[in-house]
Amino acid sequence: MKWNCQTLTLVLSGFCVFACADEPVVNHQNPLKQFLFDTRIIAETNNVRLVLGRVEKDSHNPLIKADKPWENALNNLYPNIIYDGQFKLWYKCVLADSNIIARMMPPRTINNVGWFLCYATSADGIMWEKPVLNLHGFDGSKKNNVVARDVANVGVFRDPHDSNPARRYKMIYDIGVRLPDNMREQFSPDGINWSEPLHPEGLGTSGDTHSMMFWDEQYGRYVLISRIYLGERLVARAESLDAVHWTKPEVVLRSLPNEGKNRQTYCMPVFPYANIYLGFVMMYNIGSDKSVDCELVWSPDSVKWERVLAGTPFIPRGPSGSYDAGCIYAQAGPPILKDGYLWIYYGGSTAVHRGWKRNCLPCLVRLRPDGFAGYESQQPHREGSIITKPLYFMADQLRVSADASGGSLRVEIVDINGFSLDDCEPITSDVTDCIVKWKSGKTPGMLKGKLARIKFVLCNARIYTFSGMEPGENRQ
To answer: 13 pLDDT exceeds 50?
Structure first.
């Protein structure tokens, strides 16, 4: 299915910001947009089931090959993706062979291997270039795309919040497996020329995974998602007002009791989306074949996390022998809305998580806007319904994102005249932020500030989000 260029509405502080889907968009926050899998707002469901969205893998995958002599092993890749006029990728490179390590200038190892952070750019997000940066030496030359070295497991993000242009880009990484105070940070004005390492305070023994941080606009602080190890791999969170002094990392997600230590949380890049936080948790199947699966997670506050349909991959691994049959590691950084789809990058590996020598190559999937997960009719040609808890109307219109081609979606504002199911004009196509209309001609704008429940009735359809309302708890 294809979603053409359309107007997307972002409601912030009473204003509307419009952006064409053909112009890449990276900010997906909207305090009035609700995901249907948000358990805080759902009161009742009938004859519907929660399902993950459908991702489509790009036919060009993998997008980049490990074809440079210093790209000895793009181990786990840990892709960091940013769009700011062009696509930018920072990716992990491990130098595992002794003869390759010896060609570093000078040779230096962490955990007995060398580490490069490599950089690539793209105008269209498909065809990538590895620019010659002339920064770090390898085999007698600086003609390579190495942007930093001796930095293990790096997370990079662009920080428009920081008033200091020399700190516009930030990276965080570790310098060894579970060593005390092993985290480091560097800053950059352009993502290419980086400062000397800084030792952040408060993080203790963490890292050894794809650590990542972002500025949380809602709460006015930096959030770090990393790992701590307490007999098993656990996702941890810390926060900071200045990206230097951090709170002690606390566990925010671990495997389920029935999974035990056989299936462990490995890394978890996250991002704000709508009025919540979404993320991709990599689940390490250490007790079986040592593969790594990518699952969807969500949180209301970046502290309490929940897996959406735990045990079901959001980006499925490919068949045996394919480029992503063994492991999948999703990007750090928000998805990029381009050409009517959300573009999500990941590292795909044929090999499973065993040994240093494996190449995890950049890949791409596309997802319909808002289409991470939603409710669909459980039985063909039979209606199903969802009823929300009471919510406050805060906008002139009620909008929905849904797939209804070959079926229908109708909406009722419960117990309010003029907004019944019979009055609703059915939605019978695939839509994003579509205005719900009633034959009475009434609009929800007349209900601003009032509490009401919404009923969605589906037949051969799927609904992802609705917008224009906020939970009552937000007004307490």
So the answer is: no
